[in-house]
Amino acid sequence: MLICIPDILSKAEVADFRRIMDATEWEDGRSTAGAQSAMVKRNEQLPPDSETARVLGQRVLSALTKNPLFISAAIPLHIFPPLFNRYAASDGHHFGVHVDNAVRGDRLTGLRIRTDLSVTLFLSEPEDYEGGVLTVEDYYGSHEVKLPAGHLVLYPASSLHLVTPVTRGTRVASFFWLQSMVRDAHARSMIFDLDMAVQALVERLGRDDPETVKLTGIYHNLIRYWADV
Ligand code: NI
Q1: Cα separation of 136 and 23, whole Å?
Q2: Which residues, in sequence order, are CB contacts of 60 under 8 Å at separation 6+?
Q3: How many CB atoms neighbour CB 25 within 10 A?
Q4: CA–centroid distance for 1 within its chain
Q5: 197 C-alpha vs ligand 1 centroid, how far in Å?
Q6: Most buried pick, 12, 114, 121, 224, via CB within 10 A?
Q7: What is the whole-number distance in angstroms between the Cα of residue 17 and the centre of ligand 1?
Q8: Which of 76, 75, 66, 69 lies closest to 196 in space, CA to CA?
Q9: d(CA 48, CA 120)
Q10: For residue 150, is it left (φ>0), alpha (ψ between -120 and 50) or beta?
Q11: How confident is the prediction for the chain on average, in pLDDT?
């Protein structure tokens, strides 16, 4: 399941990110790629251990933890320090079809996670570039994602995915992975659907409606049943 979440960063925050990133040295994106993906990856990244990447990554993390929709969809246990990439039309940048590495270790913090979900947080407006479409394959076919700056998409890290060549302008994004407390994607998706339905009922009937209280209890008990923490 793909889940798009709007307004993780405001337009002003995105502009501030871009100002800082534009003044920084970038490196070949293959520095963090596995053997297969290195063959198909053509882009640039902020060096993952650089001060700029760490500071901006921390700002992304604090925005994520304040977003109830993101928490509900991902049920995150560990979030990998966010990375930053850019695809320039002038260099024919693209990222061919691949699956992300199953396990990611961070040199600086020693954090090691199983990558359940991949995340792309868009930092360019769609009209500022041509191409650069994230294409994700799942059981239901192939999905194309290109979101406004400040919005993100969550998708299964186990899926085949690619970024089509950028043919005009520059596509800038943050990307990272997370380990969910709920490993099973189907279970996680049902918990998310239940949470959305409960939130809608709370709106309509209030928080103290007896059946809403029961359903809220079932929501928490399903997490209790499925969560590894
Ligand atoms: Ni990938």
Answers
A1: 31
A2: 8, 9, 82, 121, 174, 176
A3: 9
A4: 13
A5: 31
A6: 121
A7: 22
A8: 69
A9: 16
A10: left
A11: 95
DSSP 42-96: E-EE--TTSHHHHHHHHHHHHHHHT-HHHHHHH-EEEEPPPEEEEEEGGGT-EEE
Sign (positive or negative) of CA dihedral 32, 18, 92, 153? positive
Measured distance CA(112)–CA(184) in Å, rounded: 19
Tens digits of residue pLDDT in 94-116:
999 999 999 999 999 999 999 99
Give residue 91 CA to ligand 1 midpoint distance, Å: 19
- pLDDT score, position 37: 84
Q: Measure the CA dihedral 175/47/89/134, to 10°.
A: -10
Say how far apart CA 20 and CA 206 lie, in whole Å.
44
84 close to 171: Cβ distance less than 8 angstroms: no
Q: What is the CA(100)–ligand 1 centre distance, in A?
A: 5
Both tokens of residue 122?
């868009």
CA of 223 to the centre of ligand 1 (A): 28
The total number of residues written for the chain in this structure? 229
CA–CA distance, 97 with 92 (Å, rounded to integer): 16
